[in-house]
Amino acid sequence: MPRSEEIDSCLVCHNVDCAERGSVAIGDEIAERLAAAGSPVVVKPYICFGACPDAPNIMLYPEGTWYMRVGQQDAAEIAEHILGGPRVDRLTERVDPGMQRLILGIIDSGLGRF
Fold first, then answer.
1. Where are the domains of the chain?
2. Do 14 and 49 touch, CB atoms closer than 8 A?
3. Which class for 103: exposed (0-12), middle (13-18), buried (19 or more C-beta within 10 A)?
4. Of 3.10.310.10, 3.40.50.12280, 3.30.465.10, 3.40.30.10, which CATH number belongs to 7-109?
5. pLDDT at 75
6. 69-92 confidence digits (pLDDT tens)
7. Which of 8, 91, 4, 74 is closest to 42 using CA atoms?
8. 47: burial class by Cβ within 10 Å (0-12, 13-18, 19+)?
């Protein structure tokens, strides 16, 4: 089933591995860039996407892009994607499609709602 192209939330993992690798600061920078652009997209903490070895992890919802191994240097490009720019494909290459469907299904069902 195709997903909406809408992005209303940027979910940033705040669990141990992601947080230790800078996810909180990355999320803060994305939020600042979105606010400066007047975007209504909200950056929210998320407990875990189940991909700790590929931390930090960020998912754009409901659109469904999952970014892995995100660094501080990637925050500007992710913000640009949220604002209508291109997806940052190099940060999606390690995503397991089955795991992505599972996590999105959990979020869609309301069980993993943020």
1. 7-109
2. no
3. buried
4. 3.40.30.10
5. 98
6. 999 999 999 999 999 999 999 999
7. 8
8. exposed
